[in-house]
């Protein structure tokens, strides 16, 4: 299966970001804490043109805490502050506000020195689809300012919203990139829901996820699906999960679509456990600056 998804509105979003970049002081780059590298759009570096940036690792409530802390150190070693956030309960958002204010301070101080009145920090939030931008915005405003949904492509156009901490934020739709050079990146984005399930072969996606979990988090997989043991063949593990969950057609055939949906939904909802799909040691030679 070859994964690629780049709807027309995403090209428009890239153009929208470029057009409005001059209006903002700081760019907030939102990552998925479960896939901190794969959820970084490689075009963002080019698009934001050296603007001060704050990196936010959202969905930290779903990630492996030990791995999240390792990633924070990884980013810090490259001169980047990464702030873990749980948009569901607001944990980490105070640090996000502080980070945005700190990133914009030098520019705003210079404006005041030139005789201009103090004004709110203007920020832009960018990130891949379904990474939680709207949920974070609603938390920071204290009201439902942005549409949310557990699927990519909910935010369709730009909108300005006023946040806590005297920050004005320009929200933009999620943006992927035209081609995934590494199909492993495509699968990780599919696992986490950044790509619409409707354009995927979800049976294959669930099989690949089951294979990864059997290798990296075997005890969690066994515990969730009450498996006595795991097989070296990922398809047999998928079959056994299907049997445990009653995903069987009449005649004993496996209902792969049904079991695939169950596994993907339970992974994305954190029901299998706290899981991180990428580890810093696998990206030692990656330069993020």
Automatic annotation (TrEMBL):
Keyword Nucleotide-binding: yes
GO molecular function list: GTP binding; GTPase activity; RNA binding
Compartments, as annotated in UniProt: Cytoplasm
CC terms in the record's Gene Ontology section: cytoplasm
List of residues binding GTP: 58-61, 86-87, 130-135, 174
PROSITE patterns: G_CP
Keyword field: Cytoplasm, GTP-binding, Hydrolase, Nucleotide-binding, RNA-binding
InterPro entries cross-referenced by the UniProt entry: G_CP_dom (IPR030378), GTP-bd (IPR006073), GTP-bd_ortho_bundle_sf (IPR023179), GTP-bd_ribosome_bgen (IPR019991), GTPase_MTG1 (IPR016478), P-loop_NTPase (IPR027417)
Superkingdom as given in the UniProt entry: Bacteria
GO biological process: translation
Residue intervals of the CP-type G domain: 13-178
Classification via Pfam families: MMR_HSR1
Gene3D superfamilies for this protein: 1.10.1580.10, P-loop containing nucleotide triphosphate hydrolases
Similarity comment: family membership: Belongs to the TRAFAC class YlqF/YawG GTPase family. MTG1 subfamily.
NCBIfam families recorded: GTPase_YlqF
Protein's job: Required for a late step of 50S ribosomal subunit assembly. Has GTPase activity.
Protein name in UniProt: Ribosome biogenesis GTPase A
Species annotation: Anaerosolibacter carboniphilus
């Amino acid at each position: 299966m070859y994964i690629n998804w780049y709807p027309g509105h995403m090209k428009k979003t890239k153009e929208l970001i470029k057009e409005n970049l001059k209006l903002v002081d700081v760019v907030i780059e939102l990552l998925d804490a479960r896939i901190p590298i794969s959820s970084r759009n490689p075009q963002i570096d080019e698009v934001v043109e050296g603007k001060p940036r704050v990196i936010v690792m959202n969905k930290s409530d779903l990630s492996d805490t030990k791995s999240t802390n390792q990633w924070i150190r990884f980013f810090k070693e490259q001169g980047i502050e990464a702030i873990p956030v749980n948009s569901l309960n607001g944990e980490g958002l105070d640090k996000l506000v502080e980070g945005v204010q700190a990133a914009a301070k030098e520019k705003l101080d210079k404006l005041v020195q030139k005789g201009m009145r103090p004004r709110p920090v203007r920020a832009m939030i960018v990130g891949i689809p379904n990474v939680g931008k709207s949920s974070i915005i609603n938390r920071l405003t204290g009201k439902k300012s942005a549409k949310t949904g557990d699927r990519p492509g909910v935010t369709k156009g730009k909108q300005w919203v006023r946040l806590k901490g005297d920050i004005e934020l320009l929200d933009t739709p999620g943006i992927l990139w035209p081609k995934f050079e590494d199909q492993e990146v495509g699968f990780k984005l599919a696992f986490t829901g950044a790509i619409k399930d409707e354009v995927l072969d979800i049976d294959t996606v669930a099989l690949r996820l089951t294979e990864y979990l059997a290798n990296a988090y075997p005890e969690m997989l066994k515990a969730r699906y009450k498996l006595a043991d795991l097989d070296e063949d990922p398809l047999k593990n998928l079959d056994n999960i299907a049997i445990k969950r009653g995903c069987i057609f009449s005649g004993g055939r496996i209902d792969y679509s049904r079991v695939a949906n169950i596994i993907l939904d339970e992974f994305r909802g954190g029901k299998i456990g706290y899981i991180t799909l990428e580890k810093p040691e696998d990206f030692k030679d990656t330069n993020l600056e």
